[in-house]
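Good morning C.,

I know you're traveling, so I'll keep this short. The sequence:
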Amino acid sequence: MLSAAAPRPSQRLLRAVTALLVALAPLIAGSSHGRAQSGDVVLKSPQAILMDADSGAVLFQRNADELVPPASMSKLMLLIMIFNALRAGEITPDTDVVMSEYAWRTGGAPSRTSAMFVPLGKTAKVDEMLRGIIVQSGNDASIAMAERLSGSERQFALAMTEQARQLGLKKSVFKNATGLYHPEHLATARELAVLARIIIKDYPEYYPLFAQREFAYRQHKFFNRNPLLGAVAGVDGLKTGYVKEAGYGIAASAKVDNRRLIMVIGGATTPEERKDDGRRLFEWGFKNFSEVKLFEAGEVVGHARIWGGERMYMPLTGDNGVNVVLPRYPANQKLSGRIFYKGPLKPPIKKGDQVAILRVTTSSDAMNEVPLFAAEDVGKAGFVRRGLDSLLYLATGWMR
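The tokens, ready to paste straight into the viewer:
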């Protein structure tokens, strides 16, 4: 059964999804080995989220929108900034980066925090700094890169927050490049998972760095701090974190049988608890969820209202169809489907423009958000049609 309420409800969507769920009920309800209930995953960590990397579906969440100190997991934002600078040609892997006194004292050997140990006043190449940040979580390398890109760590932190807003992160705030404790340096588990997903999807040329087990620099040999690498099947990234004010955290990803999941855990009391919770969450996610196709490529999902266009409504489709990730257990779950967009849409709109999202949620709180695209071009209407649409707005308020 499907219930749906949306800002722009689509009966076409309701009928199509309802019919499809009836057909797929045996698949969603259980596996070929029986209908036994799998039970909920048991975690000790106070913050957690598990996300399907391809669809963005949220498979599990606990306090995922709570702002907490992210520690070194916030270096994911730093790394995106460095990747962008490399792509833009602002720096190259061979660019020399100097270790300033501020970077050395704040994040190097005198700080007694995780450091790459670049000597004061010496330089290291960007490629070395990247590995020092990813493998060793070097705070000195993080600050030195921030100074190289923005002139100061403070200016770089402002740019991090600005970039976060452009990426759709609405809550997280960055006050430094390292994740060292600052009362206003805060992030949510959900938004850290979004950053991990962006790195995996948008920067495939750099993602293999997160699976590097060792890194040698000068007389030092560093070992990757990710406790799930080599311990949990398919894990190949990303970043751990710890500050005493927040406990132990990890943002990690694993790929098994062509399915990739992203997990963020925060607030664990010990490294062992962080590792155990991460293992449980990945194993639970890969065991208890299946991908299901709701709409074929080119099939209309719903319609969006157009203001001042050649037509009042525009059909919406998925990109190569609409796939969602649904729990196998428990049986007979209810689904809710909603189409969201900032409406009414205004022309001109080109076929293929992303204009909306389809959100499908289950009664067990699993959530999928799938982008929807314009199925055809819509041009601007003439003056009379636009005037009629404006009158309709005044009469009915449908633009709200």
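Safe travels,
E.
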